[in-house]
Amino acid sequence: DWNEDTPDEIKHAYDMVEVLDDYTEEKGVSVAPLCKAAGFQTVFHKQLEPKEVKHILKEEMFRFSHQVPSHILTGQEKPDAPKGYVELDPAATPPDLLEVIATANKEKATESSNADHGVTGP
Fold first, then answer.
1. How many whole angstroms separate alpha carbon 51 and alpha carbon 10?
2. Residue limits of the DUF3444 domain (predicted)?
3. Is residue 19 within 8 Å of residue 115, measured between CB atoms?
4. How far, in Å, CA of 104 to CA of 87, rounded?
């Protein structure tokens, strides 16, 4: 739970997500986690395991911090550009998410088109 009694360090923990559908008053919005791609600073891939999809209800919309501009990589940008992955704008990405990781997550990346990406708190 996130309220005025939540410690400040928890409020500053961010997760990147992709918004999967339009917001409705009744259902809120569904989001899928974005996982960091190994060897890149601002490249992520969507995790579509059904158990990982979260539903953010109207009452929890405050969990969204801001929308991060992004684009889908075509694989033509440079030799190691992973096709279908999402590259986020580094100026809008929280600093703690800019660290390059050395090993990839086991989840398989999926291609997507013109998706909205956001940052949520815990």
1. 23
2. 1-77
3. yes
4. 16
